[in-house]
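Quick question: what would this complex look like in 3D?
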Amino acid sequence: MNLDNYIYLSCILFGIGTATVLVRRNAIVVFMGIELMLNAANLAFVTFARMQGTLDGQVVALFVMLVAAAEVVVGLAIIMSIFRARRSASVDDANLLRL
Amino acid sequence: MTAMLTAVPAVVRDTSGAEAVLFWILGPLMVLAALGLLFAKKAVHAALGVAFVMVALGVFYLAQDADFLGVIQVFVYTGAVMMLFLFVLMLVGIDSSDSLVETIKGQRWAGLLLALALGALLVAGVGSVTFGRAQGLDEANADGNVMGVAAKIFSQYVWTFEVTSALLITAALGAMVLAHRERLGKRRTQRDLSVLRFRKGENVAGLPAPGVFARHNAVDTPALLPDGTPSALSVSRVLRARQQVRPADQFGTDVARVEDDVEQGGRR
């Protein structure tokens, strides 16, 4: 098997994540789409690290994971506070930058 | 970079056969689970699909000589992030945000088309590049993967690592501030509630407890009033709204069944 297949898989996953962000309206599902995109990028990083024979790709993937974890915590807290104020988690309902 | 992009003769850069089998089994399953995120009606099903993708990615990392990342992937994503998502799903509950009414006309098809175009562009872009012969990580992982990654993190990337700690602390503080809700009034004690009930003059002794009968003492069993009608006040209003309250006329058949059981037990 060729290592390129991992890159193709990561492209497909990235595309699905993009479609989720564009199509779905539930804020939590949209957020999961973003997570999927980040993970697809991570898969590409790990595969490139293997192609290049250095561990830099893996270190970058680790930092991506850290940033994603921080982003999830803040994002879900924002979704919670918006839901508390508006009783809805739809991305189409919130059209003002205030609660 | 140039070394990576120079064309190489069509060498078979085969990974091991076991890895190929793993890839062709897990890869399609991953794509299916990811499509579940896109098409599942219920957000919980979408979350399960994503959790599967995360676990499968962890397996792929392990297969690709990234032991540390593989374990961290399962811990951080499946263990922490997806569980956080499920917690928030439980807190938010099911609402109308997945209704089929489009705010912008044709947004769904336009979005799907754009995402498909992006995916095709990425695949075409990757397809047009010839990657050099894969180096493999045997040399870099000579002291073990964890040692190799640690050597990178604590030498070349140490500044990034330090900055990450600031990011994580900021994120934790931000989440606490965002999720915090200030209590507006004083917390009402049992005494205050009792005084309020007396002021209002209704349900002075508190709401009736749910029914306790020979076979049922669950919260979905309404208490019976002296005339035999069920008391709506004795059941949670959520259960009433969901129509999950046990109808009172079934109690009679229950009594008959208990008597039957007792009789048969005596015979036995």
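Answer marked as accepted. Residues 7-12 of chain B have pLDDT under 50 and may be disordered.
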